[in-house]
Every structure is written in structure tokens, then in C-alpha cells.
Design goal:
It is a single chain. This protein is an alpha/beta fold. The protein is built from 16 helices and 5 strands. The chain has helices at about 5-10, 25-40, 60-65, 100-110, 130-140, 150-165, 170-180, 185-200, 205-210, 215-230, 235-245, 250-270, 275-285, 290-300, 305-320, 325-340; strands spanning about 20, 50-55, 80-85, 115-120, 140-145. It has a 5-stranded parallel β-sheet with strand order 2-3-4-1-5, sandwiched between helices. Helix 3 links the parallel strand 2 and strand 3. It is elongated.
């Protein structure tokens, strides 16, 4: 069940005894968690609200709590959160409890009608071969909180901006989406900041947006890559100096730029082979939105140009690590030479 449908059912329909909240999108996880708390009118310190971390607590304790009668709940139900159920995955962990699943499997077959058990599984997938996983998925209502697809995430963020009452022109709205990386958790945090800043004046300009949502290192390196490839010496030097002032190391910047150029070359090759954005993302194991940006960038430069900059950065890495040249001087020379297209 998708998150929106689940939220509506939690709000208005009888609650099921067991839910499995599966996915890695922290913002959606939090919305589902808050929906259960609101429905049962429970606060953090209420006796009918109990939480267990499976990397620290034993599963049998959670089962025992679920079998305990509620005390003050408005719907005569206890709310049991089970966090980090690593045993549902193929991951092997050390230093964690060895869980006995017999009581839990018995509970899944006949859950208490006075408890709502919510298993929060912040994973991309579960190990479907395990008996415990099969039994849980059969008994539980599964709520999908995986990250949204690019199109859906863009719609969600735009709708959230509209619902907040803020007004942005198209350029500013697109920049907001870019700076938040289609990450709902980050997007909603930054939107809250913008709403507080705007106050009674609901209009947010591009300049105000950039002042309130500083570019991340990834965004700055994307710009630095573009400046290098385009031979924009002044802009590249200014951005490089800014990054140094922010505490970034030249060796690290050079290494990340090598990685970025490698991604651009791989993307360009796969595009020439006829692959679309989704296929390239799957082949390279990279978020589709990042591939979208890479595709936009490589269309502006030839393969020869990409290779020239890539080879120079590789050479820089060798010269610095072997102590043959000063790292900052070498990087500045690379920027200057890029303006002359080598």
C-alpha cells in the first residue's frame, strides 16, 4: 500500500493488528509514525506506547508487551513500535541479540486485538527466503515508504510549496528542487525554514533561496566541473578558493572531480548506446536524478573534452601523491590551462 492511501486508512478506518512499514524514505516513515500516534492519541511518555530496537532489545519482550492489556488508550489499544528488524534482511550483524522467533511466529498467527504492532523496516528490500519474513508479510499490512520516483518526488515537493502558501517563480522553484536533491526529508526541512523566513511576505526570490539553502559540496563540485569543462577560469578559481575557505582539501576535491568526470564519460557512452535515463541509473547504480543532471551536462561537451580534463585530473593525483608538485599550485594551473582548452 502506498503511503498516501495508508495515511488515509490509518486516520479513518479500523486499525489492523500488525503493520510492516518498509522503505528508506525517512520523511515518509515519520509521517506514518505520527499518523499512528495521532490516531491513538498517544504521547512519548504514555504507558500504552512502547518501542523496541531489535539491535538492542529482544523480540520476545515486544511480543509480551503486545499481549499486555492497555491502560489508558482512547481506543483500548497499545501501540508497539519495533525498530531496526535486521533479522528480516540478508544482512549479518555482530554484537546484536540472538532472537528466538517462536513466540513472534505464534503471535503473527493470532495477534492480540488490543494492540497495534508497527514494524519499522528502513530497508530497500527484505530477505524473502526467510520463514520469519514470509510469515510477517502474510500477517501484516505492508506500507511502502520507499523513495518516490523522480516525477512523483517533483510533484510532491511542488505541491508542498504551494500548500505552504509560498510563492516562487518557475526558476526559483526549479532551483529549490535541485538544491534539495529530490530528497523529501531535506526538502521539507528546507521548506519549513523558508516559511519561517518569509513570514507575512510569502514571496521568495532566487537570491533569498540561495542565501537560505547553501549549496552542498556535491552541488559546488558539479558547478566546478562545469566551469573546468567550459574553460571559465575566473568562476572556477573563485569557487575553488571558496571551497578551500570552507575547509575542503585539494586532494579530496581532485578525487571527487575524477569520480564526477568518470560518471560523465560513462553516461555519455551509455547514451550513445541508446540507453535512457532509467537504464543508465540502473546500470551504474546511481540515483536517476543525478543521472539526469549528468545527461544534461555531457550534451554540452565532446568525449574528447571530457577525456582531456579527466586525464589531467588523474595526472594531478599522481603528481601530488608522489610529492612532485604542490597540490594547490597544480590545481590552479589545471584551471588556468583549462581556459586554453589545453
Amino acid at each position: 500500500m502506498d503511503t498516501q492511501s495508508a495515511l488515509q486508512k490509518i486516520k479513518s478506518q479500523p486499525l489492523a493488528p500488525i503493520y510492516l512499514v518498509l522503505g528508506t524514505e525517512a520523511y515518509l516513515q515519520d509521517k506514518v509514525r505520527k499518523a499512528f500516534l495521532k490516531r491513538l492519541d498517544l504521547q512519548k511518555d504514555d504507558l500504552d506506547l512502547v518501542s523496541f530496537d531489535m539491535e538492542q532489545d529482544y523480540l520476545n519482550l515486544a511480543v509480551a508487551e503486545a499481549d499486555t492489556l492497555p491502560l489508558f488508550s482512547s481506543e483500548d489499544k497499545r501501540l508497539i513500535f519495533i525498530e531496526n528488524p535486521f533479522f528480516l534482511t540478508a544482512e549479518r550483524k555482530t554484537g546484536v541479540p540472538e532472537h528466538d522467533f517462536e513466540d513472534f511466529l505464534t503471535y503473527l498467527a493470532q495477534p492480540a486485538d488490543t494492540a497495534v504492532m508497527v514494524i519499522m523496516a528502513p530497508y530497500e528490500k527484505l530477505d524473502e527466503r526467510k520463514k520469519i519474513t514470509k510469515a510477517l508479510k502474510k500477517a501484516a499490512v505492508v506500507i511502502d515508504v520507499q523513495p518516490l520516483q523522480e516525477k512523483d518526488a517533483i510533484v510532491y515537493l511542488k505541491r508542498s510549496v504551494e500548500n505552504s502558501g509560498l510563492q516562487m517563480d518557475r526558476k526559483t522553484l526549479d532551483l529549490f528542487i535541485q538544491l534539495t536533491d529530490l530528497d523529501l526529508s531535506k526538502g521539507m526541512r528546507e521548506l519549513e525554514k523558508l516559511v519561517l523566513y518569509a513570514g507575512g511576505n510569502k514571496t521568495v526570490t532566487t537570491e533569498e533561496l540561495l542565501a537560505l539553502i547553501p549549496k552542498s559540496l556535491d552541488h559546488n563540485l558539479f558547478d566546478l566541473t562545469d566551469h573546468l569543462l567550459a574553460g571559465r577560469t575566473e568562476a572556477a578559481l573563485r569557487l575553488y578558493q571558496d571551497l578551500l575557505l570552507q575547509g575542503e582539501e585539494t586532494i579530496k576535491l581532485n578525487a571527487v572531480l575524477i569520480s564526477q568526470l568518470r560518471l560523465l564519460l560513462q553516461t555519455q557512452i551509455l547514451m550513445k548506446q541508446g540507453n535512457q535515463q532509467s537504464n543508465i541509473a540502473k546500470i551504474l547504480g546511481i540515483h536517476p536524478y543525478r543521472i539526469k543532471l549528468a545527461m544534461q551536462q555531457v550534451r554540452k561537451f565532446s568525449a574528447k573534452r571530457l577525456m582531456q580534463v579527466y586525464d589531467r585530473l588523474i595526472e594531478n593525483d599522481y603528481l601530488v601523491k608522489t610529492g612532485k608538485m604542490d597540490k594547490e599550485l597544480l590545481f590552479q594551473l589545471t584551471i588556468l590551462e583549462a581556459a586554453g582548452r589545453f
